[in-house]
Structures are given as C-alpha cells and as structure tokens.
Amino acid sequence: MAFWTYMLKCADGHFYVGHSDNLEARIAAHQSGTIGGYTHSRRPLELVWCETFGSREEALAAERQIKGWSRAKKRALIAGDWDLISELARCRSRG
Question: Is position 64 within any domain?
Fold first, then answer.
C-alpha cells in the first residue's frame, strides 16, 4: 500500500502539508470542506506537490519535516530545485 505526503496551496497563498493513504479522496475532502481545521476557510486549494512513500511512518516523517521548513524551502520543493533546498538548509544551520 502506498502513502502520500502532499502540499496544498491555499486561496490565501499559505501552504498546507499533510499525508494520506488515499490522495484523491483526501484532496476532495479538503476541497469540499468536510475536513475542518486549517484548510476549511482557505479554499479553493491547489495540489502543488506530492510524493509517495512505502509506509505511513515515512509519509508522516516527511510531513513533519516539510511543515518545519521555511516558505522559500517549500517553494524550492515545489519547483524540484534540490540545489536551492540544500543551500537554504546550509544557510539556516549557520544562523
């Protein structure tokens, strides 16, 4: 069974990161408003990034890691710019 970590861009420009074993159903639930919380008042939403993992633990670990990232680092992930992600990580570790 595959598990997904995903990032949504909210209507207000903020990013939401989550994980699920059924990506399509989870995004539909966010879009319809059946999931309360952060995204409920920030619709419509756009899926901007996702990755599959072999276990729920891996997907959850990725979610937690990405939630701690800066906006710039999240944008680099969306763009697939691993060099920039590495640079931003080095800059943060120096500060």
Answer: yes
The SS3 call for residue 85 is: helix
Spell 2-15 as b/e; 16+ CB within 10 A means b: ebbbbbbbbeeeeb
Query: Which tokens is 42 given?
Result: 């920030």
Domain count, the chain: 1
Over 90: is that where the pLDDT of 93 sits?
no
* CA 69, 72, 73, 76 torsion-angle sign: positive
- As a whole number, the mean pLDDT across the chain is 95
pTM: 0.93
Amino acid letter, 3: F
Whether residue 76 is contained in a domain is answered as: no
